[in-house]
């Protein structure tokens, strides 16, 4: 069973205790995966997990979690999809250097041209995610 409420740490101090030894051991970057990149990791700050990771370690951080989509990774119904979501907030956070890289999952599985469309500003052409796109992976 999946537990999407589980967290790596409950406070910034706990997160630092987990990440500092990894950074000291030579990790160059951290891939900070969450369900929704736009949600803050800790109360009292707008930073997501990637933002906290970068601030605490000084290392590059990759954010991921429903990039380009508005729906849950695990929806209430197994056949429920997700609509395309705007990227303004993501781009603002990237410009502010909250994180260094962005990983894209389901949106790219649904639409292999997703990155090219975003690069060219063709946001109206982005496809909603349909769970059937996962069928081709099995």
TrEMBL record:
<protein>
    <recommendedName>
        <fullName>NADH:flavin oxidoreductase/NADH oxidase N-terminal domain-containing protein</fullName>
    </recommendedName>
</protein>
<dbReference type="InterPro" id="IPR013785">
    <property type="entry name" value="Aldolase_TIM"/>
</dbReference>
